[in-house]
Amino acid sequence: MSALSAKRRRRLRYLTRSTAADQHGSSEPSLLTEQGSALLDLASNDYLGLNGHPAVMAAAQQVICAEGVGAGGSRLVTGHRPIHAILERALATWLGRDQTLLFPSGFQANLAAVMALADRHSLVLADRLIHNSLLTGVRASGARLQRFLHNDLSDLARKLEAARQRSPQQRLVVLSESLFSMEGTSPDVPALAELCERYDAALILDEAHALGILGSGGRGLGHGVPSIALICGTFGKAFGSGGAFLAGDDTVMEWLLQTSGAFRYTTALAPPLAAAALAALKVIQATDPGPALLRRAQRWRDALEAAGWPRPAGSGPILPLLIGADAEALALQERLEAAGLLAVAIRPPTVPEGTARLRLVLRQGLPSGSLEKLLNALGPGPCR
Fold this sequence. Notes:
Blueprint: E1 16-17, E2 30-32, E3 38-41, H1 54-67, H2 82-95, E4 99-103, H3 106-117, E5 123-127, H4 132-141, E6 144-148, H5 153-166, E7 172-177, H6 189-198, E8 201-206, E9 230-234, E10 244-248, H7 250-259, H8 261-264, H9 271-287, H10 290-306, E11 318-324, H11 326-338, E12 341-342, E13 344-346, E14 356-361, H12 370-378
Parallel strand pairs: 3-12, 5-6, 5-7, 7-8, 8-9
Antiparallel strand pairs: 1-2, 2-3, 4-10, 9-10, 11-14, 13-14
């Protein structure tokens, strides 16, 4: 502990979320601090406001009343419930994949994905900004790791070519995300998949932040790209629930069922969370809210740039406002909080040194005037 910089130490603070639904069925995006101050939520990943949607809450409550809260055991012991199978079938149909398998968390799902396809004889090529859970999976698998430049398919192609020349038969696995959580950026997924197919490399695509928003009907950027070996998805973001899943073909999913310790040795996803996720899926299918949120994200990027701030990268609902120094990012977070806005400063080691940022997150249900309130609190940007 003495080696940890005092400036880099994190602390926990609790925030109370309002679950009152607005006229569109989404929860009001406000949080209460420990001191009772109300903050407009520009930080959480509840992109579609489904955390407080009446249908989502009612589905969870119905299962609680019928079966209780927890599953009580592993899926392979006593924890398998009808709602698990129903949700898995619905997800597989929606995504156009053979099967899906539920996990209690996205971290576990990503561990399972990497360990299913890589071992100590494998080479894993990962985007330089890949999520920590996938890197932990690489370490646990014993595979050799190489990084490629962020969303740079030319760099990946060079590394794949070199790997195939060194060892034509070696197992190659590529790791990427369809929407990077701290960058707001996305790769060209069809081109990425084609490249992996050309070099016989298995592609694992983490769609945690994209599902519900990006792609046709919110199905993610991997939808319609059958060569992707595994799709990773979570329910704790746009679905407003909790838990995660992997989706793939029959062979890979059966292999996971039979061999994955991350699946076998854990209590099953709580049935109320599965029921909430299924209800959220139905809302997404019925309303397709992604395009409207993306249009709003475009307007916010335009306005931030016009105000003199560096244009946030990407096109989705994650808008990173690059600041640079830790102290400046924290000071800006405090300034916004004083104005009634919650936007969290993201610092190393979560992001590279010198790239501290304010992570702004758009969500359905933000009240009118939110952008103006943000711009007033930020003031003129450094580029003006």
